[in-house]
Amino acid sequence: MTNSNGWIKSTCAYCGVGCGIEAKPTSDGRLEIRGDAEHPANYGRLCSKGLALGETVTHQGRMLSPSINGEECDWDQALGFVAEQFNSIIREYGPDAVAFYVSGQLLTEDYYVANKLMKGFIGSSNIDTNSRLCMSSSVAGHKRAFGADCVPGCYEDLEMADLIILTGSNLAWCHPVLFQRIKTAKAERPNLQVVVIDPRVTSSCEIADLHLAILPGSDVALFNGLLAYLAEHGQLDPDYITAHTEGFELALAGARQDAEDNNTLSCITGLSPQQLTDFYQLFSNTEKVVTVYSQGVNQSTHGTDKVNSLLNCHLATGRIGNPGSGPFSVTGQPNAMGGREVGGLANTLAAHMEFGNETQHQRISDFWQTDTLSNAPGMKAIDMFDAIDSGKVKAVWVMATNPAVSLPDSEKINRALEKCPLVVVSDCIADTDTTRHANVLLPAQGWSEKSGTVTNSERRISRQRRLLPTPGEGKPDWWIISEVAKKMGFGHAFYYQHEADIFHEYCKMTGLGNHGSDQRPLNLSGLSDLTPAQYHQLSPQQWPVADKSELHHHSQELPQHLPHKRLFTDGVFATPSGKARFVAVRYQPPASHTRKDYPLVLNTGRIRDQWHTMTRTGLSARLGEHTPEPYVSIHPTDAKRYRLNDSQIAAVTSEYGKATVRVDITQNVKPGELFIPIHWNDTTSSAGKVCSLITPDTDTLSGQPEFKFTPASVAPLSFRSEAILLLNTPRDISEFDYWVQQKVSNGYLYRIASILPPEQLMPRLARYCQYENGKELSYSGAENGPYRYANIQQQRLRSCYLIASDLQQQDVDWLNHLLDEPIDSSVERSLISGRVEGKLAGGKTVCACKQVGKNTICQAIKEQGLSSVEAISRNTQAGTGCGSCISEIQQLLDEQILISSG
């Protein structure tokens, strides 16, 4: 859909908020990006990652052509080879010897075709998705309680609630647009209360009225305590429980066992009795409550029980299906919900139809016209890679994801891929930790080239539209899968001319037998008769859409007044009885336990400006500036105990591996706990991959891995020198002991540490900076440095390095933009002296959206006497983009006030 000014409506490539964007191609092949003011997910807002989407559209690093065993080939050869190898393996070892590992980065149409090929025609259920890592515990919890995997509420409920509970969710960094919607609502209605439940102090605590820093893994005890409190104080809804639920007494009995002794409950959760009472009273006394939960709940060996413990509390009070009330699972990927709908998980069939239901199985067999539909769940992600490692699975097709980085126990995953006889990878990026293991590489379209649909966390389907031509020979994922299916002999079922054909088929499937006692909330029948033109023009639709008359069109009404569809408003659920099910759960400690050699609890998560394994956000210079290196957050008490200094390099070790990261000493984590972000990998760092540490323990029901509780140790590492290396092309610098790669304007910046002294490190770095001709600037200090060097040609910097025994106390952020700037005499002086002058002096980036640095903010505070974040924003523009940097601006303000007060 293109408007008269050339802006094309599409969707953001990142989290499950599903923000609408408008994009306009520029003359240099890039994209200008702005928020879509008409899209009901964001009403024009975008976060720092969304605003930088145009910077990540590049041909650099793209996979441009198919290849077999490292040799380029044409599409017919590659597709024929894959089909022949799959058929050969299936003939010899059976259909379960092959597997697909897919991704929430796929569009719904891609997902649908992949699931159809694997379950419907290969006849195995060995297709699973990286969404297993982020929301499968929610899926299992929803199905146990509601009878189907459904998020009941709408984003609108966040603005209508009187109490919002953020549990296991750093919404401010991971779903910033939703956080800004809550923040705005709270500013308009100060009586809106916010509770943050998180072991860490995060940016989400900025708006919290109550922060509950629970002990990792204790969520079930906390919510069981709440259920018992509600019963004890007469705060249940007995009419709702009787009319619309079953199993309440068993659930309450289990909850009371956990909450029988208030001191024990306090000990389990790490919260004081007063904190528990404050939270329980707040929930009890507030009618409109939304509980937003995410990975801190899901990524656990008991994640499903955690989900059901909080669902129990909403069911017991009837706070579900009503405006401003309900449990709300927010997903991590742009199409995690769409993948759940079509059957992308190994333990579901398709369109919310399930294994074990013979009627539904026959319906799908008839619809797909197949007699080989799989009849049992397949292997979930961790089990799948265990089977690859053991040799049970002989071939795996990885689509649009990077399991060599993102799955726990990375050493095992890489070992499994290395020994697997056939590894097929379809991706848009050529060099990832996973593509390095591939026998066959298939170039897929990237985000800006793909066309199809995605479904966000509030069940809203949006069109992702093609914005740019595809470089090289890249193809849509659905086309690649369909062509392999044809060559395997299943052509009659995969002759799609356009993604609209697939969408039509999928929507029609959701209506199969969807009535009476077999009625399923997921119903897109009303979208099944769209013409290709109508599909192309499709505006965001929230399911269910059972009739074409329910379609929303942009011209109908203002976006703020769109109809919002809540589920279960009538108290009828998708269970055989029509009643929601309470699930009796009991607190159980995490599967792993700290011990003498691993005394600390490692938690993992995202940072503000990066996404997953950085194959996309890592291409943006501005997104890399805020947090350029992997780090471990540790409390000052533990830092002192383990002889760690702030910003030094340390080794974090578990029984599964080791990571090498910077030390971040902070009060934001509690004693005994560590935090490391998930984004770095073997392509962007020497040893910053956190998943090399993570325990492979999983939830027995959901199969979701435990990313929030890994026993670990930490120890300082000694290096004799540190360096910054700035180059205009990427280089292999793996010879150095410690290194991190950061994309900067027109090049790459490498942070290096070495066991060599500066004078011995200098000649090794010099080899990367050798060019013919050009002006050379250099400075050599005493025997141990510092050493500085720059190579300039036609007033442009081609390379430079800085070496010292310690660079951490020096401002080096000014180097980030040097490759983008004409080199005048003042810049030359800075390169030689190390003292920053003029326009280079902005300092470390704080606001990625507006590119405002720390020095600029602090200078404005001091020189103009600014005393509020609002004043700083007006003066510097910092914080006027997505707003996720506001807590950091507040911290700088507090520090400057403290300094000025003496």
TrEMBL record:
Keywords: 4Fe-4S, Iron, Iron-sulfur, Metal-binding, Molybdenum, Nitrate assimilation, Oxidoreductase
One biological process term in Gene Ontology: nitrate assimilation
Keyword Flavoprotein included in the entry's annotation: no
PROSITE patterns, per database record: 4FE4S_MOW_BIS_MGD, MOLYBDOPTERIN_PROK_1
GO molecular function: 4 iron, 4 sulfur cluster binding; metal ion binding; molybdopterin cofactor binding; oxidoreductase activity
GO cellular component, one term: oxidoreductase complex
Needed co-factor(s): [4Fe-4S] cluster; Mo-bis(molybdopterin guanine dinucleotide)
Pfam families linked: Fer2_BFD, Molybdop_Fe4S4, Molybdopterin, Molydop_binding
Domain 4Fe-4S Mo/W bis-MGD-type: 5-61
SUPFAM superfamilies in the record: ADC-like, Formate dehydrogenase/DMSO reductase, domains 1-3
Family label: Belongs to the prokaryotic molybdopterin-containing oxidoreductase family. NasA/NapA/NarB subfamily.
Protein name as annotated: Nitrate reductase
UniProt organism field: Photobacterium proteolyticum
